[in-house]
């Protein structure tokens, strides 16, 4: 029987999965790399508090539920996700390579449309294997030890934000840092956040202040004749709103904590729409590729594809809706054709003695109680 979904978190998933594709629409389209123009302000308004904030809110949400896992199979969860991701990846490659004929020679297409935001799912796979060990540390060590671990991880995280050396290890560090911060907050019953009382108004204020600081800083460095160097201003913005940004982390966790504190009566519409968010996350760049290959939504020869703000908003709306529709269609195909077979296959695999021994060890780790 499927576990009852909490509509407050499901609504959060929907909002975050609207923010991420729109941000990528600006980022992949090169909006922030262009000199100051009539769409610089709306582009920065979107980028200052959307996708990277959403990434950390998603990490916090994932950590929150994994920290509550007790006596639940680890391997079967991993295998189910792996097969689901493999299905989506093969579909993605089918569309990109065979339908749209993106052959790997276009560096821009490869970096954004083929690789894109999949870094998150690669890291999540690693987390799914090692999270029981994190839980053991979080729930058996004194809370002061967890605090010190968070500080050490935070220092390396901030350094990554300065150097911006993008690789799998540093991506993993982002998730591990977030995981231990949520673990620390859980050990303190989510009473405070950075020393402030964990109240709705406090969390909203943290997000608003972080958003304003981010936006004004980005706008300042982009403003004509401030730096007189578009490449430099773009690089600064990349660090401010990039995936190793500490301020984006703070805002993202605040957003998660805010929705955690909100009570929403179970809503079937919200819960049903939220089921598509995983597919939207992994396929929205494929939808973007379809538009790009039809000369839509991309900058050509430094010419912005939007005439004005209304055009930008309109195309963003069309892109989001089409991403959700495409995700819904693919989810239904998977559920109708593969889900039952995959579940039976995973059940058969996990009944083997070797997997049972591994699950038994995981179970012992997850049963550890708080000190």
What do these coordinates show?
Helices cover 73% and strands 1% of the residues. It is built from 16 helices and two strands. A two-stranded antiparallel sheet has the order 1-2. A hairpin with a 2-residue loop joins strand 1 and strand 2. Helix 1 packs antiparallel against helix 3 (51-66). The longest helix is centred in the C-terminal third of the chain and has 29 residues, at 309-337.
Structure at a glance:
By secondary structure, the protein is an all-alpha fold.
Q: What is the averaged pLDDT score?
A: 87
- Proportion of β residues? under 5%
| Percentage of residues assigned to helices | over 70%
Sheet with the most strands, sense and barrel status: 2 strands, antiparallel
Distance between the termini: 33 Å
**Number of beta-strand segments:** 2
Quaternary form: single chain
Protein traits:
globular; two-stranded antiparallel sheet; 371 residues; mainly alpha
How would you summarize the topology of this molecule?
Blueprint: H1 7-28, H2 40-47, H3 51-66, H4 75-99, H5 107-115, H6 119-140, H7 143-163, H8 168-187, E1 192-193, E2 196-197, H9 200-222, H10 230-240, H11 246-260, H12 268-274, H13 277-292, H14 309-337, H15 339-350, H16 353-366
Antiparallel strand pairs: 1-2
């Amino acid at each position: 029987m499927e576990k009852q979904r909490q509509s407050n978190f499901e609504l959060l998933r929907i909002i975050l999965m609207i923010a991420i594709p729109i941000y990528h629409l600006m980022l992949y389209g090169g909006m922030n790399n262009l000199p100051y123009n009539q769409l610089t302000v709306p582009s920065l308004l979107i980028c200052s508090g959307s996708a990277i904030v959403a990434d950390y809110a998603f990490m916090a949400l994932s950590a929150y539920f994994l920290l509550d896992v007790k006596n639940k199979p680890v391997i079967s969860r991993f295998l189910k996700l792996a097969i689901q991701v493999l299905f989506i990846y093969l579909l993605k490659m089918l569309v990109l390579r065979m339908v749209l004929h993106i052959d790997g020679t276009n560096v821009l297409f490869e970096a954004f449309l083929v690789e894109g935001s999949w870094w998150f799912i690669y890291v999540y796979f690693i987390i799914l294997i090692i999270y029981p060990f994190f839980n053991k540390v979080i729930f058996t060590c004194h809370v002061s030890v967890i605090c010190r671990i968070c500080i050490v991880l935070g220092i390396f995280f901030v350094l990554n934000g300065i150097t911006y050396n993008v690789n799998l290890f540093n991506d993993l560090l982002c998730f591990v840092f977030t995981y231990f911060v949520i673990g620390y907050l859980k050990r303190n019953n989510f009473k405070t956040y950075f020393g402030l009382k964990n109240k709705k108004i406090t969390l909203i204020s943290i997000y608003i202040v972080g958003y304003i600081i981010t936006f004004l800083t980005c706008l300042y460095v982009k403003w004509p004749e401030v730096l007189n160097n578009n490449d430099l201003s773009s690089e600064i913005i990349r660090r401010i709103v990039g995936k190793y940004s500490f301020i984006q982390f703070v805002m993202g966790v605040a957003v998660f904590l805010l929705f955690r504190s909100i009570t929403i009566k179970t809503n079937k519409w919200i819960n049903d729409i939220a089921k598509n968010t995983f597919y939207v996350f992994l396929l929205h760049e494929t939808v973007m590729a379809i538009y790009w290959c039809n000369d839509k939504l991309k900058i050509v020869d430094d010419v912005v594809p939007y005439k004005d703000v209304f055009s930008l908003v309109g195309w963003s709306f069309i892109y989001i809706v089409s991403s959700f529709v495409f995700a819904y269609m693919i989810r239904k195909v998977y559920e109708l054709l593969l889900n039952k077979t995959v579940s039976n296959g995973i059940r058969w695999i996990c009944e083997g003695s070797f997997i049972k021994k591994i699950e038994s060890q995981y179970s012992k780790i997850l049963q550890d109680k708080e000190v």
